[in-house]
Amino acid sequence: MDFRTPEVDRLAAEVIPEEFFELSTQDARDVFFADTRMLDGKQLAHNRYRTSPRSLIDHLAEQLELAGTETLLDVGCGNGFVLEHLRPHLADGRIIGLDIAPGVLQAAEARLAGVATPCEWVEGSADDLSAFGDDSFDRVIATYMMHYVPDIDRCLAEVRRVLRPGGRFVLTTDRPDSMVEMYQTHFAVLREMDAPARLFKATPKARISLINGGEYLNPHFTQVELRTWQDQLRFADAEAFMAFYSAHNYCCAASAPGDLGENFFAELRARARARVQAVIDRDGHFALTKFTGSFICS
User: Fold this and answer.
1) What residue spans define the domains of the chain?
2) pLDDT, tens digit (0-9, with 9 covering 90-100), for 180-197
3) What is the mean pLDDT of the chain?
4) Cα–chain-centroid distance for residue 5?
5) In this predicted model, what pLDDT tens digit does every residue of 202-247 receive, in sequence order?
6) Bridge-partner residues for 96, per DSSP?
7) Nearest-CA neighbor of 99 among 163, 32, 47, 166?
8) Helix 238-245 × helix 262-283 angle, to 10°
9) CATH number of the structural domain 6-297
10) Parallel, antiparallel, or unpaired for β 163-174 and 286-297?
11) Are 298 and 221 in contact (CB under 8 A)?
12) 137 and 162 in contact (C-beta within 8 Å)?
């Protein structure tokens, strides 16, 4: 189904700011990914409320073309959600998960505890893969995380170094205007509240997205192919949407309070909930249009 309509394009042009938030390494490690709550909320929503019959894992498995015996590195593995679902495709292979945040890395280890596929868990930054030798992996994945990496160019050079000849690197990310309906609501509420100008920024994913990702990848890989897909999340319950909205760091209800205080964000959430409920009352659901995809690199 094609969810891209003139209305969605118009919204994107009007709503998405050019300037985007940048999440510091310290905040990523010690605040937003100190535990799995934000990742859990996002992953639950993307699976439960999607309208596409094909999940993220379906798309990744297709792009990876796994025979089942490969050694795979997940750069920025988070809570292990992706690896848990890819693992049956690697029954006779080997999995290595790397993440900078020990809290989510421990959760990933617990998540895959007891599986027969050998798993190894490494704490470290994605732009320093010195723990691994040259030509170590048949497959490397980076799923919705490259925008957090301090030195993207160094990370990609390291991925190319550890990737075996004939191997494949799959980088998955979004367009900056993915889920524009959420940001329309978010910025409308901020304007109602006369919020500080510093909060009117796009998601950190704009740093490396489906639009500019090729510029980063082409210097490091001989072949770079972009494969895109669409989906739409539909929430028939405002509280379900609010759990998802509140899990977005530095752009929605989980933005760093700074000197604004929690009362500011409590009001932000209340106003956003009221707007979403009004749409649900009118249309039966609140929709978020997803424009996402993967770069297939070799």
Assistant:
1) 6-297
2) 999 999 999 999 999 999
3) 95
4) 23
5) 999 999 999 999 999 999 999 999 999 999 999 999 999 999 999 9
6) 73, 120
7) 32
8) 140
9) 3.40.50.150
10) antiparallel
11) yes
12) yes
